[in-house]
Amino acid sequence: MATTDGSMPTVDVDAVKMRAVQVNYPKKKPRINLEQLGEVKEPERRSMYQVMLQNLKAANRATFLHRIIYVGEHRLAGYEPAKELFAAIISQCNETYCIERLTGFLLYYSRHFVHMVEGDEDNVNKHLRLLLACEAPLGRTKLLIHVSNINQRFFEEWTSYTDAPSKLLERLDVDADLQQSGRCIYNCIKKLYALMGSLAHDLLGESADQQEDLATLPSAENSLTSSKVFSYGSLGVADAHRFFLPEYELLDFVVQSSFTMPLQEYSELYGVVPMRDIYKGGRRLRGDRATEADRLQIECGPCRTTSSPTTCSSGRTSAPPSCPRRRASGNMQGRPAPPPARSACSK
C-alpha cells in the first residue's frame, strides 16, 4: 500500500518480531540490604566439617581419640621388667611423629596383664606393631574392647598398677555360649573401668596436692620436673582399689574364650578394606541352599571361564568343558580332553 506521496511505507521489523514472540522473562529480585534488616539476618550456613573442627577445638584435640584394652599372658620376671617394657614402647611411639600422644594404663599380675592405650588411630596401631614385633616373652593376647572417638582420656600420662586380687569362687566355663561369655567379658570391662576411674581420681588429687606443695617452694625448686610415668604398687591407697581388681580366673577366661579376637588379627585389620562379594562380579553362595552349579561356577572363577556348568543325562552337574581343571583331568570315559577354547583376547 502506497502513501499519499507515492513512496512505500517503512516497516519496523524489530517491533513486529517483539509483537509476534512475547517471552515472559522472570523479573530480577531486588537485592536485600542487610543493614535495613537490623537484628534479623540470614543465618550462616555451616558444614559438618566446620562443626567437627569446632568440637575438636573445644576439646583441645587435633583429631579423634581411640581406646583399646587387651589382655594377655606373659612370662616376665616381675613387675618392674613388665613396666619398663610397655613404658619403652609408649615412649617410642610418642617420641616419633604423632597427632595425639599415647596415654594408658598397665595392670600387672604374676601371669596376666591388662593394657589400656588411648591416642589417635595411627599411633595406637604403631604401638601394636612394636609390641607384636618385640621379642618379649608374651603368650596369648586377646583384644578386650575397642572404642572409637572417646569422650575423654582416663589418664593424662601413662601409668601402671599391680596388686593381688581376690579369688573368684564361681567356676567359669570357657566353652560357654555367646550370652554367658558376653556377660563375663562385660563384667571384666566394668571392673577395669571402675579401677581406672578410681586410680585417675586419686591421681588427680595427688597432682593437686603436689601443685599446692610446689607453690610454697622457692622458684629455683619450682622449675624441677618429675617423671611422667606413675606407678601405684607401693602407695598406701592400694587397698582401696583392690575391690575393683578383676580376678585371675576372669582374665584367664577372657584369654581362652573363642569370642575374643587375637591381638595379631586385630592389628592386621588396620588399613585393609575388605573385598565384598558384590564387587567380585561372581555369584555368591546362598548358604545351605547353594546348588552344585553355584559351587562349580565359584570354583571355575579363577580359571576365567564364562561358560555355565553342564548337566549329563543322570542329572549330575559337572564343570564347563572350557575349564582347565577338566581339560587337565580328561574325560571320564578315557577320551582325550577337548582343545582349549580360544578367546578374543588370545587372537
Automatic annotation (TrEMBL):
Comp. bias intervals (Low complexity): 305-318
MF terms in GO:
blue light photoreceptor activity; FAD binding
Which SMART domains does this UniProt record tie to the protein? BLUF
Ranges for region Disordered: 305-347
| PROSITE patterns (UniProt xref) | BLUF (PS50925)
Q: What is this protein called?
A: BLUF domain-containing protein
Q: BLUF domain spans which residues?
A: 65-161
Q: Domain of life, per the record?
A: Eukaryota
Annotated organism of origin: Dendroctonus ponderosae (Mountain pine beetle)
Annotated Pfam families: TEX47
